Amino acid sequence: MDIGILRRDGRTDPFFDGTAAGRLVIRRCEACDRWFAPDASGCPGCGEEDPGWAEASGEATLVTWTVLPEEPPAYLALVELAEGPWLHARLDGVTRGDLREGLPLHVTFERPDEGETYILFHP
Amino acid sequence: MRTSRGTSIVGLGMTELGRVYGRSPRRLAADAVRLAAADAGLALGDLDGLLVSHGVSGSPGIELAGTLGLGDLRLLAQVNAFGATAGAMVSYAAMSVLNGTATTVACVFADAPRKPKQSAGAAYNRSAREWHGFAGMTAALGLRSVTSFYALAAQRHMARYGTTSEQLGAIAVSTRAWAAGNPLAEMRDPITLDDHQNSRWVSEPLHLLDCCLVSNGAIAVIVTGDDRARDLARPPVHLWGWGQGHPGHRKERGSDFGLTTGAASAGATAMKMAGIAPSDVDVCELYDCYTYTVLVSLEDYGFCAKGEGGAFAASGALGPGGSLPTNTGGGQLSAYYMWGMTPLSEAVIQARGDGGERQVPARDVILVSGNGGILDHHSTLIVSPHPKGA
C-alpha cells in the first residue's frame, strides 16, 4: 500500500515541525513526569489539556504487527517507544521472519515529494 | 406506577437482513419495532419506552419515535457503546422497568452500510489520497481497515500464547456449521479448515474467513416486567443478569491490549447478578466480528484459562454437538452482522426453543456478549427461559 500524502491540520504542526527537522517529538507532561503519544488528548494525571512537546529518543520495541498481503508486503505495527507510549507505525527493512515481540527498532524520517515528512521504524 | 421484580424480553422483530437495499436505516428500524411489537402481541401504543442505536450509517436517532408515531413516552434515548450497545440498551430498559420509569421498552438497532456493487469491507475501510490529523497519519501509513486493528490484537495473542490461525479457523468452521441450520443466515454452505486457511489474507494473521459479514437491516427487542410478560403472546426470555466492561486499554507500556478484554469484568458482573458460574452456562452467543474476538471472550469469561482459548476452540466444544454450543445461528461470521443484536436475537430464538434444526437441547442459561471499538467496550447479558431463582 502506498503511503498517503500527509497534510498538517494545526494540531499536528509541532509533530510535523519535528519530523521535518529529523526529530521525533511527542507529548510530555513535565508536572507529572509522564510521556504520551502525539495524539494524546491531555494528561489524565493532572488534567492538563495541552501537555507540552518533547523530543523522544526514537528507540522503540515491537509490540505487535500485521502484514498487508501486497507486493511488496506492508508491515504495520504497534511499537513501544523507549519513553513508554505506543505508536501505530509502519515498519521498513523487515521480513516476516524478523517479527517478534520486543524486536528493537529505531525511527527514521522519510521526506516525500509531496506532503509532510513521516516516520518509519527499522530494526 | 407498580414496579416489577423481574424483567424479560417479550418481543423480537427482525427485518430482512443482509443485502437489503432501498430502505433507509430509519425505515428499517421502524419496521423492526413494529415486528417486535406484533411478535409480543402488543400494540405500538403499549410502548412507553424507546432506546435507539445505529451503526455506521449514523441514523436513526430519537426522531424514530416520531416516525413510529409514539406519544407519551416515559423513556427515550439514543444509546451508543458501539458493539456493546445492544446489551447495554437491554440492561437500561430492564433497570427502567425495575425502578418504575417505564413499563414496556423497545430497543432497536439499524444499519445499512452495504451498497450494491461494492465490497462488503468498503463500509469499514478508509480511503483517501490526502490525510489530515493524527488518525489520518495512521491511515496514511497503511492502517486503514478495522480488520488491521483487530489483526494487531490477534497477533499479540498469538505471539504471547501460541494461538494459531488454525485455531481461529476452528471457530470459522464451527460457526458455519451452525449457520447451515439457520434459514436467516447469509452464508450456509459448509466450510473446512482448508477453506479457511486458503481464504485470502485480509490483514495477516486474519484471513477472509476470520472476518464477519456486513449486513443491512434492523432488529428490535421489547423488554417488560415479568408481571406483564406472562400474559403476552410468546414465552418470556428472562433477564438474569447484565454487566459492562470498558477496560480503557492505554496505548503504552504495560497495556493488556489484545490479551484481555472487557469481557472479564462484564462477565463477572453479569454472572454474579445472575447467581451463576461459567460452568452453569449452556449456550454462548458471542460477538464475533472476528474469530479472534470469540476466542479471547471465551477466555475472559472463564470458560477456559487465559491463553487456552485456541485449544478450547479447536477441541470441537463450540460446534453442533459440542460441550459449549456457541454462535448457534452462525453469528456475525456466517449469518448476519447487526452488531450486538446478532448474538442477542439468536439467544432469544434459542431460549424460546424456536431454533428449528439448530435448536440446542439444553438452553437453561444463555450468555450473550457485545464488543465494541477495538476491544474497548464490552457488554454481557445472561438470559433464560426460566424466571431467575425459579
Number of domains of chain B: 2
Spans of at least 5 consecutive residues with low confidence of chain A: none
Instruction: Write down the secondary-structure element order of chain B.
Output: EHEHEHEEHHHHEEEHEHEHHHHEE
Record field, number of beta strands of chain A: 9
Structural class of chain B: alpha/beta
Mean pLDDT of chain A: 96
Oligomer: heterodimer
pLDDT average of chain B, as an integer? Answer: 96
The major β-sheet of chain A equals: 5 strands, antiparallel
Sequence-ordered SSE layout with sheet pairings:
The complex is a heterodimer of chains A (123) and B (390).
Chain A lengths: L4 E3 L5 H8 L4 E5 L4 E3 L15 E4 L3 E10 L5 E8 L4 E6 L12 E7 L7 E5 L1
Antiparallel strand pairs in A: 2-3, 2-4, 5-6, 5-8, 6-7, 8-9
Chain B lengths: L6 E8 L10 H16 L8 E6 L9 H5 L6 E4 L6 H14 L5 E8 L18 E3 H9 L4 H16 L3 H15 L13 H6 L2 E3 L2 E2 L9 E9 H4 L7 E9 L17 H12 L8 E3 L5 H11 L7 H6 L16 H5 L5 H12 L13 E7 L4 E8 L6
Parallel strand pairs in B: 2-3, 2-4, 10-11
Antiparallel strand pairs in B: 1-8, 1-9, 4-8, 6-7, 9-12, 11-12
Helix pairs in contact in B: 6-10, 9-10
Key traits:
heterodimer, A: mainly beta, 1 helix, 9 strands, globular, B: 390 residues, Peroxisomal Thiolase, Chain A, domain 1, 2 domains, 9-stranded mixed sheet, 13 helices, 12 strands
Notes on the structure:
The complex is a heterodimer of chains A (123) and B (390). Chain A has one domain. Chain A is 7% helix and 41% strand. Chain A is built from 1 helix and 9 strands. In chain A, the strands form 2 sheets. Chain A has a 5-stranded antiparallel sheet with strand order 7-6-5-8-9. In chain A, strands 3-2-4 form a 3-stranded antiparallel sheet. The two termini of chain A are 20 Å apart. Chain B is of the alpha/beta class. Chain B folds into 2 domains: 119 residues, Thiolase/Chalcone synthase (Peroxisomal Thiolase, Chain A, domain 1); 221 residues, 3-Layer(aba) Sandwich (Peroxisomal Thiolase, Chain A, domain 1). Chain B contains 13 helices and 12 strands. In chain B, the strands form 2 sheets. A 9-stranded mixed sheet of chain B has the order 3-2-4-8-1-9-12-11-10. Chain B has a two-stranded antiparallel ribbon with strand order 6-7. In chain B, helix 9 crosses helix 10. The radius of gyration of chain B is 20 Å and the shape is globular. The model of chain B has no long low-confidence stretch (mean pLDDT 96). At the A-B interface, strand 1, strand 5, strand 6 and strand 7 of A face strand 5, helix 4, helix 5 and strand 6 of B. Strand 1 of chain A pairs parallel with strand 5 of chain B, so a sheet runs across the interface.
